[in-house]
Amino acid sequence: MKPLEGIKVVDFTQAHAGSLATMLLADFGAEVIKIERAGVGDMARYWVPMKGDDSAYYTYLNRGKKSIGLNASTDEGREIIFKLIEDADVLCENFKYGSMERMGLSYEEIKKINPNIIFASLNGFGQTGPMKNVIGLDLQMQAMSGFMDRTGFPDGPPTKAGPAMGDQLSGTYMATAIMLALISKKKTGEGQRIDIAILDSLFSILEAAPMTYCLKGEVPLRVGNSYPSISPYDTLKANDGYVSVGISTDRQWEKFCDALGMDDLKADERYKTNESRGDYYETGLKDALEAVTSKISKFEIERILREARLACGAVYTVSEAMESDQIKARNMLVTVEDKALGEVTIPGTAIKMSETPGGFNEGAPLLGEHTQHYLKELGYTDAQLKTLVENKIIEMA
Fold it and tell me: What's the pTM?
């Protein structure tokens, strides 16, 4: 049995961040009923990679969910939503601030129907503050949180992280908050409002930078792939790519030099301590290390240093990571049958639990695939469904 079985989620999320949150809930057994705009659907349905008219991106974020195609701006559409919400445990949305209010679906209105519901909102700037009305996507949040200023090399521009870090992190925070609220509700019987901002999420992981500014009035410089407290802690050139190394102690430094035959560096007084290695790293040590590593393949360096029980790892391409025995052993690639795409392989569930494991065995729903099922449960007749379709209130796959 999955831990969230029996939990009903009415899901207004779209795109990435909010959909990732409800994806995690679905992976662990929640019944996630995705409300999509009739005739249009979630915008992620149109994001690459595409196969014909269908998106694998959408499948990844919406596996195991149910879909109702609905025009929520109409009285009839809102009536359906209110009926769905009557016995729901959770409502999720990641619209721009004020959107749910404009649709007549504010927290206050929803509480009139279901006083103990958990109402979770996620957007760029959150529900409070002077910028709550401003549209903010992952790129802008990486920029405005200070995250981008901490990413990149000292002599280069501020740099966006490759994946959508703000979306990934805020979606994970949202799922975590919902589960905490469910625990609280079990104790008190009361629901609550959850307010997640992508800006907050990224600011929360700046590590020591805010404290450095508070204590010393200094803004830390970007450090690229290195780490100022440990040296060498960096990616080094190999003859076919790059390899990452992390040498945490002076004893590890000696083992590192022995493993790669760098007796001259081991004997050099400038590099005897972690502090002195850091002092000389950019002015000589890094070049000296790469004079050695650039003659060896990244996987050979990885093998040599692992045999010496040192922290290291080749920089894998995505294809190399997908072929990794470790990724495969951890079930991080799952092949499912998707109704739109056919057989498709997508990333698996990263949370491993011994007694109540999560997971999924199906792809994403077609737009409106479950409209008929849920409306029939709510008591709508075939004739009523036909009229709702004709009036473009609902869509059925």
Answer: 0.95
